[in-house]
Amino acid sequence: MMTHLMNAENFNHSNQIEEVYKENLYLAGLFQSNINDHWLLDIYLQKCLKIVNKGYLAIKNMITTKLQMNNIDKIRLDNLTEIKQTLKKRLFEAIYHNATYLFETGKYPQSLELYKQLQNKLEKHKHILQPSINPFEKQQINIPLYIVCYEQICRIILTIYQPNKEDQMNELLLNLNEALKYAEKSENQKLIGLCNKQISQVYQVHEDYEMAHKVAEQYFDIAERSNDILEKIEACKLLGSINENLSKLDEAEQNYITIIEYTKLLHNNNNTEKLSEAYELLAKFYIFNTNKYELAKLASENGLNYAQINETIIYHQLKLWYSISKSKLMEPHYLNMIIAAQYNSTDMIDLIKWKDTHCNLPIFDKDHFSEVTYDSFTKKRNEINQSNSTHTLNS
C-alpha cells in the first residue's frame, strides 16, 4: 500500500495524470472487500474521478488555447490529443466505478443519475470495455461498457419501482417500461423477462388481471426460449397466482404441478428445500380453491417428506395444510359417528378412543349408520306414539 501511495505522489509531481489515477484506483480496490472500509473506498473513488476530470479539462483547454493562438505543431497536437482521449476513457471508467459503488451500497437514485450520464457519453464511444477496479489487471472484461450501463440502469429502475398498491399504477408502468427499453437495448433476455415479470405484478396488484396474465405469458415465453428453468418456475408461480385471481382453476392447478416438475428437473430431486416449497404451493392451492382434499393431503405429505429441517415456515405451513386436509376428509365420518354414538355403545367407545389417543377414526359404514339411526328414530317414534296414545286415553 505504501508503495502505491508513494508512486501516486511521485507521478503527481511529474504531472503524469493517468498514472496518478491508476495508483489511486488500485488503492480504492484494496478497500472493496471489507464492508467496514467502504468509506475509504468511497473517498478514493471520488478522488479518482476528480483527478481524471481535472486532467481531462486541463488538456482539453490547452489544446483549444493553442489552436486559437495557432501556436502548436502537428506532432505536439497529436500527442496532446492522444493524452486527451486516454483521459476521457479514464474519466468514463471513473464515473462507472463511482456509479457501481453507489449501486452496491444501496444509493440507487444517485447511482442511476451517474449511469445515465455515462450512458449518454458512451453513445459515441461504444468500443470502450467494462473496466476492472484493478487498473494493473492484464485480463480485460470483454463486455462493452455502454451495454453494462443499459443493464445497470434497468436493474436500478426495477429495484426502485417495486409493485405495490401505494404507488400509482401509471407511474410504476411508466418507469418499468423505461427499464424494459434499456433491457431491450442491451439484448439481455433475462432482464427483458424480469421487466415483463414486474410489469405483470403491477397489473396484478392493481387488479387488472387480464393484462397481468398477458404480460406474464410473455415472461414465460422468454424463459421458454432461453430454456431458463429457474425463470420458468418463477413465471409459473406468477401465472398460477393470476389464474387464481381469474378463477381459471384448472390452469392454475397445472401451473403449480408444472412448478414441481421443473423443480425436480432443475435440482435432480436433490434440493429438498425447493421441492418442499413447490409442494406447499400446490397443497395451499387445493385447500383454498378446491374440495380436492385428498390431493391436498398427498401434496402436503410429499412436501413434508422433502422438508428435512423442521423449524421452517414452509414446514409449518405444510403441517397446517396436512392437518386441514386430513380433518376435511375425516369430517363426514366424525359427524356420523357423533350422531351414531348417542345410540350405540361401540361407536361411543371408538369416539372416546379417538379423543384420548388421536388414533385414526374408522371409516364409517353407511349401512351401519343407517341401521343405528333407523333403529333409534323408530324407537323414538314409537315412544312418541305411545305417549300420544296414553295422553288420549287419560283425557
Describe the structure.
The chain contains 16 helices and no strands. It has 395 residues and is mainly α. The mean pLDDT is 87. The longest helix has 31 residues, at 38-68.
Uncertain ranges:
none
Report the order of strands and helices: HHHHHHHHHHHHHHHH
Beta-strand proportion: under 5%
Report the mean per-residue pLDDT as an integer.
87
Rg result:
36 Å
First-residue to last-residue Cα separation: 118 Å
Number of strands: 0
Sheet with the most strands?
none
Number of H/I helices:
16
Q: What characteristic shape results from the CA principal axes?
A: elongated
Percent in helix: over 70%
Please describe the topology of this protein:
Blueprint: H1 2-13, H2 17-30, H3 38-68, H4 74-104, H5 108-122, H6 145-160, H7 169-186, H8 189-205, H9 209-225, H10 229-245, H11 249-267, H12 272-289, H13 293-306, H14 313-341, H15 345-357, H16 366-394
Summarize the structure.
The protein is an all-alpha fold and 395 residues long. It contains 16 helices and no strands.
Tags for this entry?
single chain, 395 residues, mainly alpha, 16 helices, 78% helix
